């Protein structure tokens, strides 16, 4: 599969694709890493290259998931056109449907605003999280409906765990949401970081979790929170999520000696920052991955399927309304990738924050 030879005029190519395929020195490290990720990945409907070049994010997310599942040693069954993956881990066979949270029709795409210092100075975290929750909910509901209407009675789906894999790309600075909106959507657990940053003395033990119940859309209608706190979505066994499965992940793993990776890791001893060259970095493809299990699932996904150091898993106890977790104090929190490129007889710097 030839991903990188452009099939369309420049005005039809996605901004990210134009960036990674521009032929400048150093890009080959990134392209080679993507090709390693997708080794053996089939183009089942002969549309994958077109979509990678024109819409990008959803295709990139599928490549990431495929590489992650391979890293786990899952086996793949490609006989069925949908859902996106039918995989087996040890004694558990399950299906995975991949989706992305995208900008609204009248919204700004995630690449549509330069992330300059003034952007971060003026960011309103609660507004960013509100938008993220709404767009994540849209992706969740769309795929939930698709499962019930199209997938539920398929022989290879019925009676097996169904996993929804969601990645956020819905607005400029989307990576700043971390995992706050997805946990609010699924478990109605929301951390108000803006409140904490404004008055840290009121929270000596750090930000606290609160229940919001719902969030309002621009038209005034309400988005329900806590989707995994009742049996309504029992058909969805778990949600796989990562706000760090971005092009920065490629930079962090591509062995480019000119790429500098600054990352923050949560450890049992507290937050730790690491600044290293990509060729020396510790980041793995599974770092940043989070699995949210539905306590009401008709076909639960065993915790052992995704259990790995650095992979955070959450599950709710619907009797106590508490959120249980593992590896939450041993995981990647954020990453900034800076690549120094040479071209046109001058040095310049490209920064990817993710």
Mean pLDDT: 89
Give the tally of β-strands.
16
Strand order of the largest sheet: 1-2-3-4-9-12-13-14
| Order of secondary-structure elements | HHHHEEEHHEHEHEEEEHEEEEEEE
What is the CA–CA distance across the termini?
27 Å
**Rg to the nearest angstrom?**
20 Å
Shape: globular
What percentage of the residues does DSSP assign to strands (E)? 25-35%
Q: Point out poorly predicted stretches.
A: 343-354
The biggest sheet, with number of strands, parallel, antiparallel or mixed sense and barrel status, is: 8 strands, mixed
Helix tally? 9
Number of domains: 1
Helical content band: 25-40%
Q: Structural class per helix/strand content?
A: alpha+beta
Q: Topology, pairings included?
A:
Elements: H1 15-20, H2 27-37, H3 48-54, H4 57-72, E1 75-76, E2 85-89, E3 92-101, H5 117-122, H6 125-151, E4 162-168, H7 180-187, E5 190-191, H8 193-198, E6 209-210, E7 214-216, E8 222-224, E9 238-241, H9 247-253, E10 259-267, E11 270-277, E12 290-293, E13 312-317, E14 322-326, E15 331-343, E16 346-353
Parallel strand pairs: 3-4, 4-9, 12-13
Antiparallel strand pairs: 1-2, 2-3, 5-6, 7-8, 9-12, 10-11, 10-15, 13-14, 15-16
What would you note in describing this structure?
With 354 residues, the protein is α+β, with helices and mostly antiparallel strands. The chain has one domain (10-353). The protein has 9 helices and 16 strands. The strands form 4 sheets. The chain has an 8-stranded mixed beta sheet with strand order 1-2-3-4-9-12-13-14, sandwiched between helices. Helix 6 packs across helix 7. It is globular, with a radius of gyration of 20 Å. It starts with 14 loop residues before the first helix and ends with a strand.
